[in-house]
Each structure stands twice: as structure tokens, then as C-alpha cells.
Write a structure and sequence with these properties.
The structure is a single chain. By secondary structure, the chain is α+β, with helices and mostly antiparallel strands. Among the domains are: 242 residues, Glycoside hydrolase, family 65, N-terminal domain (Beta-galactosidase, Chain A, domain 5), CATH 2.70.98.40; 221 residues, Alpha/alpha barrel (Glycosyltransferase), CATH 1.50.10. 30% of the residues lie in helices and 25% in strands. It is built from 17 helices and 35 strands. The strands form nine sheets. A ten-stranded antiparallel β-sheet has the order 1-2-10-11-12-13-20-17-16-15. Helix 3 packs across helix 16 and helix 16 runs antiparallel to helix 17. The radius of gyration is 27 Å and the shape is globular. The structure holds beta-D-glucopyranose. The site of beta-D-glucopyranose has 12 residues, from loops. Belongs to the glycosyl hydrolase 65 family. One of its GO terms (biological process) is carbohydrate metabolic process.
């Protein structure tokens, strides 16, 4: 856990005021910079010490065999792992005779600051070498949002007490040695030297390396150019070898003099382009960056982020930690998705190699909602990526004996990489999650071109899967048997309510878009009979309910299972999956993460108020939150049913998942779903926002500790600002034509004539629900 006090709580930045090597790997994730295409972990400029060196290009992966003790039909045979590509961050420094290495000498001052408004990482460091020379090093690093192939560093070194000779080595390095990552199976398997050299080049201040992956056959190139400023007499030379291309700068500096280096780096990769074409690609990107120049890149970055914050900022008064956390979250989610452009958004973004760099349903269900209301173009791109993987998803459905498309549980390039089918392939709900994200995007933007070109195909192929996976019983009820819902401590259940309700929406949405765009649907072979069959299945969908207990069954028969022995489970036995066999988890009532509770959020319309409260209390007592995807969902429903303190505690857990390293794995990369969940907990939880069938509803209420919450959402080319205090909600149209919204069910129109205010009704008290012993979230009061 990151407990030391060197992380200051500030509204617009993450500042680390001293270097603590114990949490270096975590800090590398938190200080990671990315634009969704290129990702640089927050490694120190000089490369070492490091927790995990990381430079990533979205989509660049290596294949590896997936071994099975016992073979089985339909098991994926090949896995994919994100690889550490050429590192363009490295700038080594020699001070007189000593390498600048913070493990030696005396570190007098060290500060790193991630500026969330400027989109840059600053570092300032004062260090006395073992030989007694004191220097100051300052660097600023960025991964450009507007120029997606480009990153850069401005680096400055100056003596503080006496004349020194410095040698600066600015490098591109491929196949860096990686630390051995053992232990938790979720941690990415470290791949040794995954890149084969194709070309290396160094001339003047320019460097370039081109490599190709061994098995996946992806060509990866990086190029760099430099500008050097300093006193007279600076000497430079460059050299290259297959895995290292280096510019060396030597200078003698008097106190008061500085050597400054501006390093611009460009990246490119391709599965199809030739070596000359990829070489030209990185050279061209670099030429673009050079013509903008370092300060131009800094200005562009600021402009891009000013625009983002105008659309997306969330203000929280009364809890400075949450204020910082939600901006940190918004920034990192933007970084993960902004320029991913027809590539997946991985569960860790490009901040680390955790989960092998795979994408899951996390993207569509957690990350895309935030982006839909703040940066919708990136959502269209993410869903177009899904569409581009339809050939693999259709093949997978056929292999499984089903119609339509079966999207993978985890993947980089679109093919299934899950070696554990009960919580992988059987989690078919990913199909409905994709469809839900597409429907949300269209209703939020009205993007008809996307609907015709992308949504129809996604909805039709996912609906086809549901129709073939499920069946009508003798009474006509439609069942989807033998699937795994979001709760991975139950598997192969019949009629999982989350899955069935989401599939129901999927089937209806497919019928609706097919009727709206019959010409597009016809090209996919959809006819009236098929849409009627989808509607029949949706209307007859079975939703198991236990009349005696008055609660929904998570899956058919769930409430009849033995309850997990929570009292006999020690705190150190969580997460349960690392201490108990799945067979035992599967046959007991114990819930890893929000499942029915998530259904009550995403299909709010399918439950009445009383059912929501009863279900929440029932499942709360069984939910252990062994997944970071849970707390934010629990926050939303806790707020809806009136447990505001509890909702606030869950918000705290989602928001601080990485800042406090609550799951002890922030070193592997940030939890994008939980970061996005911070926004969800605030906007859908305390803002009570629901957006279904074109209606935008709000039911705001604040926990005692928060005196004000304000957020912005963009819907149908309008920007709406919602501001909530304990007794009043104010709705202001910041931009666009009048819009009709609802406040606690009362409809009214917000126009540019001025804000509309409404009273926030008092919350009815209910008995506090209980969590399993020891699993209550930490109190924030
Ligand atoms: C969760 C899944 C999630 C995955 C990646 C697992 O622990 O149970 O729901 O998709 O992590 O975040």
C-alpha cells in the first residue's frame, strides 16, 4: 500500500515529494504517460533503478503457446502478450566519473509532478555524487495527444557547487532486460528479447531502430531527433548497434551554466507495411514533431487538455482526496482511450503489462461510459475496433456451435486468449456489453453514420449469438443456460439475471436498428422472421426471482446454495481465488464482484425501488469485492437505495484503488475500470444519472461529507453542467440547443436562458446492509 506521505493531495496534479524505491513500480504506473497509441511508464530518465521498464505501442504483442494439462475442443491454442517495445525515454548521465544513479551518492531533493492540466510529467532532482559533486537535473516529459506517434522529453542538467564534466547519452533501446515477474498469475509473463533487429541508424542528432517480433510478425520502429543547448564547446557523437542507438553529448559546465536537451521521439508499427514504408512512417512523424518543436508540442498538449477539461471536469467540494482522485482518473482514462483509434483499450491502458495487456469487458462497461459523455469520438473508434474483430468473433461462434459472433473474453487482436473457459468463453455477456456500449454511444451522439456502418452489424451479430445460445422452454420462456455472469465466483449458471437482461436489451436493440435501417440489415441477411424471433426471445426472457426471499436470483437456483463460511475465512485468505478451489467457490453463495447489482444499474428499468433495496441488501452480505470492478457499481446502487454513507465509502475505494494501491498490484499497471468507476460512482451514483431510451434522468443526492458536486456531460451536441449541493440541484446548459431532462421523474427543458434549479428531496432511511465480516469498505467519515 502506498502509505508514505510523499504523495501530496492537490486538485490538479499528482506530486511525489521524495523518491521511495519501495514504491517505485507503483509510481511508474501512476506517472505513466500515454495517448492510447504510445505509452511510456513513469520510469526514471536514466533508466535505472526501475520496477518495470515499459514502453508500449497499442496492439504490439507477441504470441505464446497456451499450454493445457488436458487438451479440449475449442481451447484457444495461442495466447498474446503485450511487449515492451523500444524505449525512447532513456537519457543516461555521467557526472565527472560517476553515473547518475540514485542508489548511490546522496539524493538531496527529488520531486515528480504529473500535471493533469498540462499533460506533462515534471521531475526535479538534486543529487550529490559519491565524489561530492552536486547537480540539479530537471526533465519534462510528454506523450502527445494531438500527434499520436510522438513523445518527447526536455532534459536539463546543471552543476550546483563546482565545475563538472557531463556526458549525456540519449538512447533508443530495444529488448531491455526485464525483471522476472513471478507470483500472481495475472501478472504478465515477461517475454525475453521479443524483437529481432532489422535496421539501426544514427547520424548527427538522429537515431532510428527497426525491429520485428518473432512470432506475431509485427514491424516496430522508433526514431528520435535532438536539439542541444549549452555553453560553447559541446561535443556530440552518435552510434548505433542492433538494439541501441545513441547520441552522446559532452560538455564542461560551470555553476550557473546548464546543458539542455530536447529529445523528440516517434513510433510506428505495422503488420503489413514493408521496412521502407515503416521507416518512412516514423521519419515523417518525427519531421512533423520537429517542425512543431518542443514548446509547440507543450502548447498543443495544453490546448487539447483545456478542451477536454471544459467538457469533462468534475468538481468535488468537501473531500480533497476524491477531488484529486477523480481528475487523476479522468486523465488516465483519457490517456487510455484518446488516440487508441481502432485498437483495443486494455484493462491497464498502456501503463503496465498486467493482464498481458489484454482488453476485457472492462472497456465497454466501465471505460466507454465515461468517454461517451466526455470524448465520444474515442468511443466510436473503440467500437469500430470491435467491429474490425468480427471475423474472429464469427469464427469463434461457429467453433462453439453458435450463430452470430462470440466476442473474446480477453484479447489484444480480437481472438480469444482466455485459457480458462468457465470464467472466459462462458462469460458471453461481453457480447451484450459491446452492444450496450454501441447503443449508449448512438443515443448520446445521434451519430447516424456510425449506427448504419457499425452499430447495426455489432447488434445483429451479437443478437444472433443470444438467439442460438438460448432456447424457449415448453411454456415459451426463453432461457440462457450454462453461462458465467460478471461474478467470477459462480460459473456456468442458468439464467444469470445480468446476462439475460443485457441480452434482452441486445435483442431488442438489434431488432430496432434493423427496422430503422432495413437496407443495411438486409446486407447482413436479416429478415422479418429473424427480428421477430429476437423480439420473442426478449419478451419471453426468464428472470429468476425467489418469492419467499423477495429477491432476484443471481442465476437460477443461486439462493438455494450453501452460504460461504465467511466467519471461518481469515482476512489473509482474500482474494478467495488465490486460497480456495474454484469448485468450492462455484457451489456456494459468495460473490466476487457486482453482478445482480450491476444489472440493477445498467437495467435500472427492470427493477422496482423495493426490489432494488432488497436485492442490494441480500447481495451485499455475500459480496467480497475481490475484483476492482465491484466498488463503483456498489456505490451506484447504494446511493440509489439511500445508503449514502456506504456509497461514499465505495466511491473512496474505487477512487483510491491505485493512488493507495488497494489491491497491491498497481505496479503492473493502473486499473482503468476502477478509475472510470470513480466517475461512474459520482455521476451515476451521487448524480443519479441514468440515460436509457433517449431520456436523461437525474436523481441527485450527496453524502454528508460532500458539500458540492459539479459535473459536465455532453449529449446530442449539448453540454450540460449539473451542480449539486445538499438541498439544491442546478442544471445549466453550457452549450447547444435546449434539452429536455428529468429530475426525480419531473421533466423540464434546460435552455440557454439560464440555469434551472430543483430541490433535492430528503433520503428515506433504511437499515444499513451488512457485508461479509471484514469486507466492509474503509470508512471515509
Ligand atoms: C474480473 C473481471 C475483469 C478482469 C479484468 C477480473 O478480476 O473479475 O470482471 O474483467 O479482472 O479487469
Amino acid at each position: 500500500m502506498i502509505t508514505h506521505t510523499s504523495y501530496a493531495v492537490e486538485p490538479w496534479c499528482l506530486r511525489e515529494t521524495e523518491l521511495n524505491l519501495d514504491v517505485l513500480p507503483q509510481s511508474e504506473s501512476m506517472f505513466a504517460l500515454s495517448n492510447g497509441h504510445v505509452g511510456w511508464r513513469g520510469n526514471l530518465d536514466e533508466g535505472e533503478p526501475h520496477g518495470l521498464p515499459g514502453s508500449y505501442l497499442n496492439g504490439v504483442h507477441e504470441l505464446r503457446p497456451l499450454p493445457y494439462a488436458e487438451a479440449g475442443y475449442g481451447y484457444p491454442e495461442s495466447g498474446q502478450t503485450v511487449i515492451n517495445v523500444t524505449n525512447g525515454k532513456v537519457i543516461r548521465l555521467l557526472v565527472d566519473d560517476e553515473p547518475f544513479d540514485l542508489r548511490y551518492g546522496r539524493l538531496r531533493f527529488h520531486e515528480r509532478l504529473l500535471d493533469l492540466r498540462a499533460g506533462v510529467l515534471h521531475r526535479t532532482c538534486e543529487w550529490t555524487s559519491p565524489a561530492g559533486r552536486t547537480i540539479r537535473v530537471r526533465s519534462t516529459r510528454l506523450v502527445s495527444f494531438p500527434q499520436r506517434a510522438v513523445a518527447g522529453i526536455a532534459y536539463e542538467v546543471e552543476p550546483l557547487d563546482a565545475k563538472i564534466r557531463v556526458v549525456v547519452q540519449s538512447e533508443l533501446v530495444t529488448n531491455e532486460q526485464l525483471p522476472h515477474l513471478a507470483g500472481d498469475p495475472r501478472v504478465a509473463a515477461a517475454l525475453e528479447s521479443p524483437l529481432l533487429p532489422e535496421e539501426d541508424y544514427a547520424e548527427g542528432t538522429r537515431l532510428r531502430l527497426i525491429h520485428v517480433t518473432k512470432e506475431s510478425d509485427l514491424r516496430v520502429a522508433a526514431a528520435a531527433d535532438h536539439t542541444v543547448h549549452g555553453p560553447k564547446g559541446i561535443q556530440t557523437s552518435s552510434e548505433s548497434s542492433p538494439d541501441v542507438s545513441r547520441l552522446t553529448i559532452t560538455s564542461v559546465l560551470e555553476p550557473g551554466q546548464a546543458l539542455r536537451l530536447e529529445k523528440l521521439v516517434s513510433y510506428g508499427w505495422s503488420a503489413v507495411r514493408s521496412l521502407p514504408a515503416v521507416r518512412d512512417q516514423v521519419d515523417a512523424a518525427l519531421a512533423g514533431a520537429v517542425s512543431t518543436g518542443w514548446s509547440g508540442l507543450v502548447d498543443q498538449q495544453r490546448e487539447y487538455l483545456d478542451d477536454f477539461w471544459t467538457r469533462a471536469d468534475v468538481e468535488v467540494d468537501g473531500d480533497a482526496e476524491i477531488q484529486q482522485a477523480v481528475r487523476f482518473a479522468l486523465f488516465h482514462v483519457l490517456q487510455a482511450g484518446a488516440r487508441a483509434e481502432r485498437r483495443a483499450i486494455p484493462a491497464k491502458g498502456l501503463t503496465g503489462s498486467g493482464y498481458d495487456g489484454h482488453s476485457f469487458w472492462d472497456t465497454e462497461t466501465f471505460v466507454l461510459p465515461l468517454l461517451t459523455y466526455t470524448s465520444p469520438e474515442s468511443v466510436a473508434e473503440a467500437l469500430r475496433w470491435r467491429q474490425s474483430t468480427l471475423p474472429a468473433a464469427r469464427d469463434r461462434a461457429r467453433q462453439l456451435g453458435q450463430k452470430g459472433a462470440a466476442f473474446p473474453w480477453r484479447t489484444i487482436d480480437g481472438s480469444e486468449c482466455s485459457a480458462y473457459w468457465p470464467a472466459g468463453t462462458a462469460a458471453f455477456h461481453v457480447n451484450a456489453d459491446v452492444s450496450d456500449a454501441a447503443v449508449r454511444y448512438v443515443s448520446c451522439t445521434g451519430d447516424e453514420e456510425f449506427e448504419r456502418e457499425t452499430a447495426v452489424e455489432l447488434l445483429v451479430e451479437t443478437a444472433r449469438l443470444w438467439r442460438s445460445l438460448g432456447h424457449h422452454d415448453h411454456r415459451g420462456r426463453f432461457h440462457i443456460d450454462g453461462v458465467t455472469g460478471p461474478d467470477e465466483y459462480s460459473a456456468i449458471g442458468d439464467d444469470n439475471v445480468y446476462t439475460n437482461l443485457m441480452a434482452q436489451s441486445n435483442l431488442r436493440a438489434a431488432a430496432n436498428v434493423s427496422e430503422r435501417h432495413p437496407d443495411v440489415a438486409a446486407t447482413l441477411g436479416v429478415d422479418d422472421e429473424e427480428t421477430a424471433a429476437w423480439r420473442d426471445a426478449a419478451d419471453a426472457m426468464s428472470i429468476p426471482f425467489n418469492d419467499t426471499l423477495g429477491v432476484h436470483e443471481q442465476s437460477s437456483g443461486f439462493t438455494g446454495h450453501q452460504v460461504w463460511d465467511f466467519a471461518g475465512t481469515r482476512p489473509d485468505q482474500y482474494p478467495l481465488m488465490l486460497h480456495f478451489p474454484y469448485f468450492d467457490l462455484y457451489r456456494k453463495q459468495v460473490v466476487k464482484q457486482a453482478d445482480l447489482v450491476l444489472a440493477m444499474f445498467l437495467r435500472s428499468d427492470a427493477f422496482d425501488e423495493e426490489q432494488k433495496a432488497r436485492n442490494f441488501a441480500y447481495y451485499e452480505a455475500l459480496t467480497v469485492r475481490d475484483s476492482s470492478l465491484s466498488a463503483c457499481c456498489q456505490a451506484v446502487i447504494a446511493a440509489e437505495v439511500g445508503h449514502l454513507r456506504l456509497a461514499y465509502d465505495y466511491l473512496g475505494e474505487a477512487a483510491l484503488m491505485d493512488l493507495k494501491d488497494l489491491e497491491n498490484n498497481t505496479r503492473d499497471g493502473l486499473h482503468m475500470a476502477s478509475l472510470a468507476g470513480t466517475w461512474v460512482a459520482l455521476v451515476a451514483g451521487f448524480g443519479g444519472m441514468r440515460h436509457r431510451n433517449g431520456t436523461l434522468d437525474f436523481a441527485p443526492k450527496l453524502p454528508e461529507k460532500l458539500s458540492r458536486l459539479a459535473f459536465r456531460v455532453s449529449v446530442l451536441r449539448r453540454r450540460l453542467c449539473v451542480e449539486i449541493t445538499d438541498s439544491v440541484a442546478t442544471y445549466t446548459l453550457d452549450q447547444g440547443a435546449p434539452i429536455e431532462i428529468r429530475h426525480y421523474g419531473e421533466a423540464f427543458t434546460v435552455t440557454d436562458k439560464g440555469p434551472v434549479t430543483r430541490q433535492v428531496p430528503p433520503v428515506a432511511a433504511r437499515p444499513e446492509p451488512q457485508q461479509p465480516p471484514g469486507r466492509r469498505p474503509g470508512h471515509r467519515h
